[in-house]
UniProtKB/TrEMBL annotation:
Residues 16-177 form the Peptidase M50 domain. It holds the Pfam family Peptidase_M50. It comes from the Bacteria. Its cofactor is Zn(2+). Signal peptide: none annotated. Keywords: Cell membrane, Hydrolase, Membrane, Metal-binding, Metalloprotease, Protease, Transmembrane, Transmembrane helix, Zinc. It is a multi-pass membrane protein. It comes from Geoanaerobacter pelophilus. It is found in: Cell membrane. Belongs to the peptidase M50B family. This is Site-2 protease family protein. One of its GO terms (biological process) is proteolysis. The chain crosses the membrane at residues 12-34, 54-73, 85-107, 127-147, 175-195, 201-222.
Length: 223
């Protein structure tokens, strides 16, 4: 039980921030391009309780990746639906990449300051652990969502980029998309051969000489 509350104290805030900002960014960009659906339903807020999906949140603590309730977007309200869909869909992963970058820079700064400040380890350690997990969870969320299968963001970006006939064909996969994603993740080596290497590369690029901290923290938390 003590181990559970330790993990909760480190993972909860970064995880909620990652999935909340991901969803809000979709709604905000849609609003800027003409669709006010998310705004009218009170989803353009950073209050995580407006976005939480209970099962999706629990999955973060079980398998390291989760989800929130999707922000509603009516693509027909967008000024240029096919083009604007690309930006609305891409907003989520872009936001997660930005949060991962900021988290990594703050972690590197704090580690540097901690090495120069004797007796501050007790103060800095929880911050470093949370920032390290923030790097991990935001990169994982961004990379996973870039899988080009609707309804994931990468799938909707693909629909926006493809020529009209191919876009119509690919968009028709959406009702079965989650089944396809489950098959790819749990019954193929996609996670081992694609997602994990991309995640590792992202961590090394952002955390630099302190990438071992991120790997160590996530290994500890995912036990």
């Amino acid at each position: 039980m003590e181990q559970f509350f330790f993990k909760l104290s480190i993972m909860l805030v970064p995880a909620l921030m990652a999935i909340t900002c991901h969803e809000v960014s979709h709604g905000f960009v849609a609003y800027r391009f003409g669709d006010g659906t998310a705004k009218s339903q009170g989803r353009l807020t950073l209050n995580p309780f407006n976005h939480l999906d209970i099962i999706g949140t629990l999955m973060i603590f079980i398998i390291g990746i989760g989800w929130a309730k999707p922000v509603p977007v009516n693509f027909n309200n967008l000024r240029n639906p096919k083009r604007d869909m690309i930006w609305v869909a891409a907003a989520g992963p872009i936001t997660n990449f930005c949060i991962a970058f900021v988290s990594a820079m703050l972690m590197r700064l704090i580690i540097s300051l901690g090495g120069q400040t004797a007796g501050m380890a007790y103060f800095f350690e929880p911050m470093i652990l949370m920032l390290a997990f923030s790097v991990y969870v935001n990169l994982l969320l961004a990379i996973f969502n870039l899988i080009p299968v609707p309804p994931l963001d990468g799938g909707r970006v693909a629909v926006g980029l493809l020529p009209y006939k191919q876009a119509i064909f690919w968009s028709r996969i959406e009702p079965y998309g989650m089944i396809l994603i489950i098959v790819l993740v749990f019954f193929t080596n996609m996670f081992s051969y694609i997602i994990s290497p991309a995640l590792g590369l992202g961590i090394r690029l952002l955390a630099g000489p302190h990438s071992g901290v991120v790997f160590g923290v996530t290994s500890l938390l995912m036990k």
